[in-house]
Structures are given as structure tokens and as C-alpha cells.
Structures
1.
Amino acid sequence: NAGVTQTPKFQVLKTGQSMTLQCAQDMNHEYMSWYRQDPGMGLRLIHYSVGAGITDQGEVPNGYNVSRSTTEDFPLRLLSAAPSQTSVYFCASSYSRQSYNEQFFGPGTRLTVL
Amino acid sequence: AQTVTQSQPEMSVQEAETVTLSCTYDTSESDYYLFWYKQPPSRQMILVIRQEAYKQQNATENRFSVNFQKAAKSFSLKISDSQLGDAAMYFCAYIGGGSEKLVFGKGTKLTVNP
């Protein structure tokens, strides 16, 4: 099992550009989520999905879109990048939506918006 | 909204000694789960230990143990026989029973001195 994979590992964008951060898991996990990590802020939930075709907003959803067409993939889209979106982004998955389940994290994507 | 507070931005410990990282949380729920995650310089998020609120017994995983004080809403992590590989950011996290949203504290950076 590759676990949770994220691409790219690093990305530099200019303000206004769009891009998609890819996330995939091969563990047949039902639940997937995206977090951003900023210095001194911990991890904050952006969007999450409890299954294919179902997504919902987390704590900081503005400026980001998601979709979940398959169980394996959960891409995060930035439609018009802003410097405030400079951050490290983590994708995570867990077996089910049950709260006690461990979330497995990908290696992260460091995004810089100039 | 639930909040998680880690009051120690940085801590240090001598190799082979014991250190305790603090975490408090605010919730009105009776059913919830608490986690400690470790993030080494590699950036990978790793689950260290998990505690179910309905269990009175404190969780233990090898050199890692917690002191769970439900009435005080406190969830501290004790690391015994500290090793150089324990140096990392440590995040406390909370999720309410039935919720899909994991809430993180801002983290504590642990340095282990040889």
C-alpha cells in the first residue's frame, strides 16, 4: 500500500493562477479531508468528504473547491490563488467517518503564492 | 465551537529524561476522542496515541502515555526515556463523537538535547 499520496510536493504560483493539488489513497478509505498548516496555527480543516459524491466545508473553505468522484481521489482546487493561500497542505484519510478512526496523512504540499 | 489549547509553544528535554506536554480543550459534549500527533522535520504527521473520553484508564503506547483529566478537560502527553528521534512538533487534537471534524491545537515544538 502506498497509503496517502499527494502531488506535487512543492509548487510556486503567481497571484491569480489556478491549480489543483492531487490526493489519492489506496486503502479504500471512506473519509478524506484537506488541511492547511500555517506557522503558529496548527492544522485547520478546509474541506472533507465522507464518501464518493459527498463533500462538505471545514473551518477555512473560502478560496478552495473540492470534488470526490471516486473513493480513491480527492483533489483540492485553487481557482484564483492569493498570497494568503501560501501554506503547507495536507490530505488525510480514514477508514470511515466514525470519529475514533485514526486519520492517515499524506506527506504534504508546500505552496507559495507570489 | 470546540477549541484545543496547547500553552507551551516550545519545550526541551535532556535525552533519557521525561517530559510532559500540556493540552486543554473546551467542549460541552460527553462523547469525544483525543489524539496526539507527532510531526518530525520530515513533515509527516504520525499518530502517537489516542484516548476515548468514555474510558477512565489512561492510554499508553510504549514510552508515551497520557494523563486524561475529563473534569478538568486536560489531556497531557508524557514521554519517558526521551530519545533524539522524539524531537518534533506535537499536536493535540479533538473530535466530537459523531463529528467528522478534527480540531487541532497550535502545537508544541519539542527539542531533545543529547
2.
Amino acid sequence: AQTVTQSQPEMSVQEAETVTLSCTYDTSESDYYLFWYKQPPSRQMILVIRQEAYKQQNATENRFSVNFQKAAKSFSLKISDSQLGDAAMYFCAYRSDVNRDDKIIFGKGTRLHILP
Amino acid sequence: KAGVTQTPRYLIKTRGQQVTLSCSPISGHRSVSWYQQTPGQGLQFLFEYFSETQRNKGNFPGRFSGRQFSNSRSEMNVSTLELGDSALYLCASKVMGTGGHYGYTFGSGTRLTVV
């Protein structure tokens, strides 16, 4: 069974600085998607970034980028120029693309605090 | 486009009762998934519906059930509520984007408290 592990329950970063959130996963599959979701106090899960496993190039979305290391099964999220609005729970997630089912496996989350 | 709508936002029920939660996906989205979020267990997959058929089910007891209607709206039902069912219940709708890539849009959830 696939698992997703986020080893940092909480992190803090100074506004305008850069922070990296860690995520490792375990799978025997070769085709899958990885996601980072943000959950602010409003509770809605918001997609931050997505990475297809077959792509070697790391995904980027404005200030958000990932470091995808497929062999190491590592998928970290880097947030540059941190802003107060980035404060939230961040979840790393995995979705198999083998059976095409829509079961997303989430890590336990990292709570990110932005210090003004 | 309107987002994923979940109703109600908050619910308080007594042990032993049953509850029904509703999720309306984004117009045109035919796949709806449900997740339970608790502080202890995190986010766990409940089930997924596509075109009124359950395609996948997580490891939850039979007290948890769901269905999907022809307009893609979905409901989940929990019978004989237990204190441990207190959680945030999230639903997500999926759309196939360009290049065959999937996107998932989540609702704001229903916070269920069992007393």
C-alpha cells in the first residue's frame, strides 16, 4: 500500500523568506501524481502544485516549486518570498495513475506559520 | 463556475442518530470523492462515485454509505453515529484537464460533531 510521510508537523518562516516543506512517499508503482494542497482556516483544500511522475522537470507555480526526486521518493515544496497569506496546513498527497481510481492518499500535514 | 458546495457547514448530532451530508460538484464534473479528516487519522478516503456508480471504497465500516444522483450531486450517510465519527467531511470533484491531467477541487467541508 502507498504511504505519504510528512516529518515536520509545524514550521515557521519569516515573511519574505524561503521555506521548504518535506515529503516522502512509498510506492511500488511507476505511474502516479503527486500534489501539494494548502488548507487555510476556511477549511477548503486548495491545490498548490501538481507533479506527474513521468516528468523529470520539477513543477513550478509562481512562488511555489517542488524538488521531485523519483528514485529517492521525495517530493519537497519550496515557497519563496513567503507571504502572510501562505500561513496554512500543507498536505502532500499521492494518487495512483495505474488503476485510474480517484483515491488520494494524504500525508498528516505540516502547519506553516508566517512570522511578520 | 461555482465551486464545490457542501451542506450543511456544521452539524451536531447525538450518538446513535444518523446523518446525511450533501455535496454538489462543479457543473460538468461527474466524479465525486469523499474524505474524512480528523486530528488523529488525518485525511482518509471514504469513497468515490462516477456517473451514479461507486467505483472505489475506503476502509470504513458499513455504517458509512453514499450515493450519487443523475445530476452528479452526491450524498453520504452515516448511521448509528459514534463519538469517533466527529470529523470534517470533505468532498472533491474531479475534472480531466488539458493533456489528460486530472484536477481535484474540494469543498469547504461539513464539520460533524457527535455528542
3.
Amino acid sequence: GAVVSQHPSWVICKSGTSVKIECRSLDFQATTMFWYRQFPKQSLMLMATSNEGSKATYEQGVEKDKFLINHASLTLSTLTVTSAHPEDSSFYICSARDGAERQHFGDGTRLSIL
Amino acid sequence: AQTVTQSQPEMSVQEAETVTLSCTYDTSESNYYLFWYKQPPSRQMILVIRQEAYKQQNATENRFSVNFQKAAKSFSLKISDSQLGDTAMYFCAFSHNTDKLIFGTGTRLQVFP
């Protein structure tokens, strides 16, 4: 149980395009989901907290207009990287919090911007 | 602000031996949670063990156990009978009231045959 599916697992696109990453809780409802970013050989840094039915809460230094988060249902949150540039290349991981207040992670998305 | 510090960038251990990974944290909160996550080369985040701060008893999960010293704000992970599959990055993490996770910088563990 408690499976989180993240899609796509790997995406390569040209600079200037927008990329959408999906995070789904498959067998539980998640009022709250989290989006993290991980640079090579570094730790996970929280970008934002996604709340179902309301606006996301962004961490200091994260551009909300650059990283659009939508949490329209209890099982789906999306992160859209708008007008992506090479410096946005990174590993993005989501997690979903279940009813027992435990976080379950997706497998991550490797984003490469050319 | 809460911080998590892992002072060992890399560790190595021989198969079947025991290794301890260190973690310290800083917080003014009294109610919080501490975690150890494992990230293998596949980069999936796997929860190894979780400790509630209000519990004095150290958490244990099979070969994995922690030494939680609340006064010293220390939370080390002991891996007994190390296996080759334990090779991974290990992250210590803090959470206040099951809120967002704050991660340490990680320790790369290599288990040798």
C-alpha cells in the first residue's frame, strides 16, 4: 500500500518549453503533497507544499511563477516548470502525506533542459 | 530555523560488520519527528526508520536501529550485519508535527564484500 506514482520519470526538452510533472497517490488520499528538488550529489531541498483545493506554499527563494503547482484533487498534484532553462535541469521528487501523517515518495523525475 | 547536520560525507563497511551514521539537528520545538531515508542509485527515497521525539525508546527495524539522544540533539543510525544491498546514500531528516521534511546533506555508504 501507500504507493506514489510520479510521471514522467525522465524528460528532455528544449530551452523555453514548459514541462509538467505529475504526482499521484494511487491507493490513498493526500490532502498535502510536497515537491522537492535534488541537484547531483546533493540533498533534497523542499520547493513547495501543495495543498488540495488551495494555493501552494512556496519556500523562500522559489519562484512561484516559474514553478506552478496545482493540487486539484486528493490524489493528484502537478508541478509545471514554465519556460524551462538549462539551470532548471535537476531531479524533482514529490511526496504525499497519508492519513497517518506519513510521507510517501514518488520515484522522481529527471529533467534535462537542452 | 531547524537544521540537520550529517558530518560524514562518506562511510564504508565490510559485509556483515556494523556501521554507525551520525546526525545532529537543531530545533526549538519540543514535538517533532526524525527519520533516516535510504536513496540507492535508482534515486528512490526509502524510509528506513522513524522516531517520535516524545518517545524515549529508540526505534528499531530489523537490522537498523537508532540512538536518539534528545538532550544532545543527536540521532545516529546503526546498521548491523551490513549487506551489499545497503550501499546507498543515507539522509537524516527532521519534521515538526509531520510537516515538511528538512534533510541533512547525506552520507554515502559503501558496503564491501
